[in-house]
Amino acid sequence: MSSYSPGETAEKTGFSIDTLRYYEKIGLLSEVARNAAGRRVFSDDDLKWLSMLRCLRETGMPIAEMLRYSELARGGGETVEERLALLQAHDERVEEQIRRLRTQQKQIHWKIGLYRDSLSEETPASVPAAASASA
Amino acid sequence: MSSYSPGETAEKTGFSIDTLRYYEKIGLLSEVARNAAGRRVFSDDDLKWLSMLRCLRETGMPIAEMLRYSELARGGGETVEERLALLQAHDERVEEQIRRLRTQQKQIHWKIGLYRDSLSEETPASVPAAASASA
DNA sequence: ATCGCACCTGGAGCGCACTCCAGGTCAACG
DNA sequence: CGTTGACCTGGAGTGCGCTCCAGGTGCGAT
């Protein structure tokens, strides 16, 4: 197997058909092949590329930068250094993102702790041990 | 000290003055105090609340849900359970977010590795050992 | 007195990343 | 031969979260 209808591609990549068309239109996807009827035919390479796009997208890379990356990727071997630099910069942002999430998660955990405490202080007189018994 | 001008507040919280006004308008900030001239005067409590909002926002909680949380917070002690549940649910999403980022980061690292390899294969004839020597 | 400045208001505008729509084509199925 | 369904196009619309703007006010410094 090596070619996929738009529907299959949407299903496999998690992008909607509309998004696939949109990505092609703005140049993230460089001229997808067509069959006799003018319908898109995605290749295995397209799927691989889409999976890379998905990864970049979900880690928060803006479309403009993915576009830059796509252009480089089309540019052949001379652009490898620049692509490397771009990915490394992005990787650092992802790292930073994770660090921040963890820091903020601590704040959330602390708040959750406060709420837990305030709930356990509230029980003494009110409920005669209704719900929540053992762990 | 215990009261802050809009400008100070913006500086300390990282929200723009416009955003502070917007948050008050939509109800994330419940009637900020005013001085004689009608200008906002933020309290220490406001700053604490804003820091919580910032934390939720940056971990990806949509405004609609922060709104729900704000309403609960205004609702007094009876809403503690619900606030707890809300934060716990959010915490799980944050956890999931971190997991996904890490997974995707692996894909990025792998790609970076490919680029590194393809660069080191390119050197043999060209450069006579210019940059990058040890380590 | 008047200037500059930080702030006020209501409402319009923006950037991003899609998402939806109307109207049309083609292939296959009954 | 008619209908269905997946797909096509260009372009308009959407949702989110701000951000900007015009026009105005009050206060301290010159």
Please, could you describe this protein's structure?
Chains A, B: Keywords: DNA-binding. The structure is a homodimer of 135-residue chains. With 135 residues, chain A is mainly alpha-helical. Chain A has one domain: Multidrug-efflux Transporter Regulator, Chain: A, Domain 2 (Orthogonal Bundle). Helices cover 64% and strands 6% of the residues of chain A. Chain A has helices at 6-13, 17-26, 44-58, 63-74, 80-120; strands at residues 3-4, 33-34, 40-43. In chain A, strands 1-3-2 form a 3-stranded antiparallel beta sheet. In chain A, a hairpin with a 5-residue loop joins strand 2 (33-34) and strand 3. Residues 130-135 of chain A have low confidence and may be disordered. The A-B interface holds A 51-52, 55-56, 58-59, 77, 80-81, 83-84, 87-88, 90-91, 94-95, 97-98, 100-102, 104-105, 107-109, 111-112, 115-116, 118-119, 122 and B 52, 55-56, 58-59, 77, 80-81, 83-84, 87-88, 90-91, 94-95, 97-98, 100-102, 104-105, 107-109, 111-112, 115-116, 118-119, 122. Chain A binds a DNA duplex (30 and 30 nucleotides) through helix 2.
Structural key phrases:
135 residues, Multidrug-efflux Transporter Regulator, Chain: A, Domain 2, 6% strand, DNA-binding, elongated, disordered C terminus, homodimer, mainly alpha, 3 strands
The average pLDDT score of chain A comes to: 92
What is the C-alpha radius of gyration of chain A, as a whole number of Å? 24 Å
**Separation of the first and last Cα atoms of chain A:** 51 Å
> What is the oligomer described by this structure?
homodimer
Number of domains of chain A: 1
Query: Mind telling me which CATH architecture of chain A this is?
Result: Orthogonal Bundle
Judged by helices, strands and strand pairing, the structural class of chain A is: mainly alpha
Domain HTH merR-type (chains A, B): 3-72
Protein name (chains A, B): MerR family transcriptional regulator
Keywords (chains A, B): DNA-binding
